[in-house]
Amino acid sequence: SGGRAPSFFSPRCFSCDTKMVRGPRKHLKRLNAPKHWMLDKLSGVFAPRPSTGPHKLRECLPLVVFIRNRLKYALTYHEVKMILKQRQVFVDGRVRTDTTFPAGFMDVISIPKTNEYFRLVYDVKGRFAVHPITVEESKFKLGRVMSRGIGAKAMPYIVLHDGRTVPYADPAIDVNDTVKINLETGRVEEFIKFEAGVTVMAIRGRNNGRVGHIVSTERHPGSYDIVHVKDVLGHTFATRLGNVFVIGRGGSAKPLVSLPKGKGVKLTIAEERDRRLQEKAKANA
User: Fold this and answer.
1) Given this model, what pLDDT does residue 18 score?
2) pLDDT tier for residue 10 given thresholds of 50, 70 and 90
3) What H or E segment, with its residue span, contains residue 147?
């Protein structure tokens, strides 16, 4: 007391005056935005920060990015806001008016006014593809079972990857299985067990977007279990068990959902070049 105030460069100044910010973060710098949004660097300092919702910040696509940057239905953020406020866009059958609502993997985005329906799935480069689907396919979605438990009054339930809680699910459904959800009723129509031979899509990691069938699973107690997957060309890759999402029963059966261009088969740079040249030759012929 009575002493001189600490100078700007004294350690005491920094220890006393530095404070943590209060509350959640409300901004997102453009350079820190997920790369799969494919935002250019020079159009501003900030990017739209997704609202809290069913999908994680780095694993979602805000509606403003989908409508403005993918579909090109708007030029500015304000125009997207006007479209959504007219209640023209549905996500999984529900009207969404939040411009930064986080749509994610397997979500169905519907625009009835233009009679268009899209499902968010990854291409082989790990980006959300603008994948149009039919009206029949827009009536359901797939959900990965993240956990199961017993609720109040002994009610069994399962929790899906998009945050849904489904009560009174089939007792045979287990973690890592996939369920087919009717978007109108919210009920489980069918489910696929996680086992060797089923068709899966990698939804995280370096193999994001690749599709194949499970060859084997390695158990590593205390660490990450590893899944070995083989695609239709015979190429194999390995990833964590938590990175794969069952989309079909395997064998000759088709996946329950349609796949974007490439069908989840990743090509090398040379194979991509050869295919591009073949398509160019066909076009010129």
Assistant:
1) 67
2) low
3) strand 140-150
Distance in angstroms (rounded) separating the CA atoms of residues 167 and 148: 10
Strands (E) located in the chain: 60-62, 90-91, 94-95, 102-104, 108-111, 116-122, 128-132, 140-150, 156-160, 165-167, 178-182, 188-192, 199-202, 211-218, 226-230, 236-240, 244-248
Q: Which two tokens stand for residue 126?
A: 């790990």
- Please state, rounded to an integer, the average pLDDT across all residues of the chain: 91
- The total number of residues shown for the chain amounts to 285
Distance CA 203, CA 43 (A): 29
From CA 79, how far away is CA 65, in angstroms rounded? 12
Report which of 142, 98, 148, 99 is spatially closest to residue 119, judged by C-alpha positions: 142
In this structure, how many other beta carbons lie within 10 angstroms of the beta carbon of residue 279? 10
Strand order, beta sheet including 236-240? 236-240, 226-230, 211-218, 199-202, 244-248
Q: Which amino acid is at 27?
A: H
CA–CA separation, 285 and 283 (whole Å): 6
Q: What is residue 21's predicted lDDT score, i.e. its pLDDT? A: 84
Structure tokens at 217: 């699973």
Q: What is the pTM of this model?
A: 0.86
